[in-house]
Amino acid sequence: MEMRRGDGYEMSTDPGRLDVDAVHRWLSTDAYWALGRSRETVGRAVEGSVNFGVYDGGGRQAGYARIVTDLATFAWLCDVYVAPAHRGRGLGVWLVTAVHDHLAPYRMRRIMLATGDAHGLYGKVGFEPLADPQRFMVTGSAA
After folding, report:
1. pTM of the entire predicted model
2. In this predicted structure, what is the pLDDT of residue 142?
3. 37/28 Cα distance (integer angstroms)
């Protein structure tokens, strides 16, 4: 998938375009959910996911998101990140909307994510809090 906005930003699901070193730097140093994540772990996560890269007019990576999915019943949207120099331009909503639209033809029962601070952004694309959170369980979570 490739798409371009009128302001020169483009998005691609081509994993060959990703600057995995930049993604690792962003996640491991600036993303509260991934602080300290190793470069090896980021690389393995990229390899096992459907990746979305956002690029500025010069082709430099400006944002990232990935989906963990079976492309049939379930998807987990994670590691959504827009570089600080590119924030405030609607790239986050554009990125999450593209992910949502990319998954729509699969008619999955559930697309989930977790966020500590971006409820408004995800709400613009149709995400909402779990209606019945007591049904969900997790292992390995921090208290």
Report:
1. 0.94
2. 57
3. 5
Rounded Cα–Cα distance for residues 111 and 34 (Å): 20
Decide: 54 and 95 in contact? Cβ < 8 Å.
yes
Residue bearing tokens 């996911």: 49
The answer to whether the CB of 38 falls within 8 A of the CB of 48 is: no
Question: Per residue in 118-128, pLDDT tens?
Answer: 999 999 999 99
User: CA-CA distance, 92 to 97, in Å (whole number)?
Assistant: 8
Token match 């952004």: residue?
121
3-state secondary structure the chain: CEEECCCCCEEECCHHHCCHHHHHHHHHHHCCCCCCCCHHHHHHHHHCCEEEEEECCCCCEEEEEEEEECCCCEEEEEEEEECHHHCCCCHHHHHHHHHHHHHHHHCCCEEECCCCCCHHHHHCCCCCCCCCHHHCCCCCCCC
Tens of pLDDT, residue by residue over 89-105, are: 999 999 999 999 999 99
